[in-house]
Amino acid sequence: MAMLLDGPPSTIEDLTCWDSDLLNLAASEGIDLTAKLELAAGAISRAVETMLISALPSYGAIRHFPEVRHIAVTPPLKQWHTCATLRLIYQDLYYSRLNDRYKAKMTIFRDEESQALDDLRTIGIGVVYDPLPQALPPNVGSAPTSDVGGSMYVAITFVNQRGEEGLISIPVEVDTPDGTAATLTLAALADNAVGWNLYAGLLPDQLTRQNSQRLEPMASPQLAPGRLSTGAKPNSGQHANVLHPVPRRILRG
């Protein structure tokens, strides 16, 4: 799955799976669900950082103590974020409207949030040894060819020394005139990335890998809508290399 710092672990769709009337409520009450997802993600990142610091003695055998950038989104962490976001939504509604119905929802999701956090502590925080950030979209140029023009979507992933892929970049639309192909180059390269993979498709949700071998940082492959290959689909980012349970310690001030 993605890394915690790649963005909010949950989506609006995840929220509506827990609360089917949320979209109607957001429209009627003027709630910015995206802002709430980001607010909860920031709070969880700070809470995870505190948990890592409190667990420092437990990581004595680890060569490099994990930081927030090493933390992967696991199912318990995603559920924690979902419930925390819903709790924030109804907490704000209750204190601004003083409506007992909102208070009941706030209490329900606060309890679910607490349970999700307990599960995360027990199962463990997912740690990635060599974390990659989400890639930026590639630079797009053009080269003369005999290809027929058209539209396609392209995206890339970074690859580290272990062969792991980071989260795919946001797909961008590329239009090529007749007699040209698109040339793709990296806009930036993560410090620990040793190469990259290129994905393309005629629709943004139908991307497949276009290279059979990892691309070198300075590579500039050419693509045209009429000659896209059908390789593997992009994954959801790096997965945890290890799960570390988090002791329930209280920091002394």
- Distance from N terminus to C terminus (CA atoms, Å) equals 35 Å
Mean pLDDT: 91
Low-confidence stretches: none
Q: Could you give the order of strands across the largest sheet? A: 4-3-6-7
> Helix coverage percent of residues?
25-40%
Instruction: Tally the structural domains.
Output: 2
- Shape estimate: flat
Structural class computed from helices and strand pairing: alpha+beta
How much strand? 15-25%
The ordered string of helix (H) and strand (E) elements is: HHHHHEEEEEEEEE
Biggest sheet layout: 4 strands, antiparallel
- Based on DSSP secondary structure assignment, what is the total number of beta strands? 9
Summary of the model, kept short:
This protein is an alpha+beta fold. Helix content is 33%, strand content 19%.
Can you characterise this structure?
The chain is an alpha+beta fold. The protein folds into two domains: 4-131, no CATH class; 139-227, no CATH class. It contains five helices and nine strands; from the N terminus they run αααααβββββββββ. It has helices at 12-18, 22-29, 33-54, 75-97, 100-123, and strands at 125-127, 139-144, 150-160, 172-176, 180-185, 193-201, 208-209, 222-223, 242-244. The strands form three sheets. It has a four-stranded antiparallel beta sheet, with no helix packed on it. A three-stranded antiparallel beta sheet has the order 2-5-8, with no helix packed on it. Strands 1-9 form a two-stranded antiparallel sheet. β6 and β7 form a beta hairpin. α3 packs across α4 (75-97) and α4 (75-97) runs antiparallel to α5. The protein is flat and about 65 Å long.
